From TrEMBL:
Lineage: Bacteria, Pseudomonadati, Pseudomonadota, Betaproteobacteria, Burkholderiales
GO biological process, one term: response to starvation
One of the Pfam families matching this protein, by short name: HD_4
Residue span(s) of domain RelA/SpoT: 215-325
GO molecular function, one term: GTP diphosphokinase activity
Name recorded for this polypeptide: Guanosine polyphosphate pyrophosphohydrolase/synthetase
Similarity annotation: Belongs to the RelA/SpoT family.
Length: 339
């Protein structure tokens, strides 16, 4: 790795990164992929993402595996650049073609697509940070292709952030309105969350079930979609008050569901068993909406720790590359200079 880290030639600012310095972009991509627990070859490729060497010299510089990943990433970037219209987005046929190329790359090596998605997310972060005005077509493309693919791969952390940042570009006023409403009720909401978390933890202790209770993060785009889809105003949206319980086994999940429905009143038609019937991307969890004695509705999700890893990191949580095939779990490698 020392030769890769020391070599500084052939690095430049890439136009598709909208003025972001290459070193800054590489550091951001590397940080995103570390959170997904990717292997050393992927992290080395990310660290060298701005290099313009040819295949032979790149292989000598960072090794065959990392070079193949980086060249695959370049192929996706070049394909995307060719399909961009004047307004910064892709036509419907262009979106289909881009998705086809990404899925082909996924079939060859998932890590190529993960590098590409991490690069797109880092660009979104940069645009937001620098307040760069972008065409709405560009942001819509992020939602239609990149966030959608992150969703298919089950990488919820990446999906949610892409959706929120792209929505901020698409509908800045609506985004600000929802953010203000969240902030305006923050103290009241935090007090309610602390009360429910304490009550849930108390019930778990009484039942002698080991588990962790969390207040669930709120995502502005998903709040907006719920408001549109169910014709609810902000005050009646239970997603704003949401909780998660993590346990060790499936038996405990259903035991906690029984406890929750005994303590609070279940809301009709607001229960989903994604453990018995997982979503197509593999997502598993119990979802239920209940009401307290004041009629305040809130959502509780219950899942195992293993299901939570799948929910947060998707396929990347289960695969690491070894001898040409994805096997086992993506665990950090020992003596990894990129960590």
């Amino acid at each position: 790795m020392s030769n890769a880290a020391s070599a500084s030639e052939s690095i430049k600012i890439i136009d598709g990164w909208y003025g972001e310095p290459s070193e800054h972009h590489a550091a951001g991509v590397l940080s995103i992929l570390k959170l997904l627990h990717l292997d050393e070859a992927t992290l080395i490729a990310a660290h060298n993402i701005a290099r313009t060497h040819g295949k032979e010299s790149l292989t000598k510089l960072i090794g065959d595996e990392s070079a193949r990943l980086l060249i695959g990433y370049r192929g996706l970037r070049q394909a995307q650049a060719k399909l961009v219209r004047n307004d910064g987005g892709l036509s419907i046929s262009g979106q289909e073609e881009m998705l086809r190329k990404m899925l082909l790359a996924f079939g060859d090596d998932l890590r190529v697509v993960l590098i590409y998605l991490a690069s797109r997310l880092q660009t979104l972060r940069w645009i937001t940070q620098e307040k760069i005005e972008m065409p709405t077509a560009w942001a819509q493309e992020i939602l239609n292709i990149d966030a959608s693919l992150a969703n298919r791969l089950g990488i919820w952390q990446m999906k949610w952030e892409m959706e929120d940042l792209a929505f901020r570009v698409l509908s800045p006023e609506t985004y600000r309105d929802i953010a203000k409403m969240l902030d305006g009720k923050r103290i009241e909401r935090e007090s309610f969350i602390n009360l429910i978390v304490s009550k849930l933890q108390e019930e778990l202790n009484a039942a002698r079930i080991e588990g962790e209770v969390q207040g669930r993060p709120k995502h502005i785009y998903s709040i907006w979609k719920k408001m549109q889809g169910k014709s609810l105003d902000f005050a009646n949206l239970y997603d704003v008050r949401a909780f998660r319980v993590l346990v060790d086994d499936v038996k405990s999940c259903y035991a906690i569901l029984g406890i929750v429905h005994n303590v609070w009143q279940p809301v009709p038609r607001e229960f989903d068993d994604y453990i018995a019937r997982p979503k197509p991307n593999g997502y598993q969890s119990l979802h239920t909406v209940v009401m307290d004695e004041h009629g305040t509705a809130f959502e509780i999700q219950v899942r195992t720790n293993e299901m939570h890893q799948q929910a947060e990191y998707g396929l990347a949580a289960h695969w690491r590359y070894k001898e040409g095939a994805y096997v086992g779990t993506a665990t950090p490698l020992k003596n990894n200079p990129m960590r």
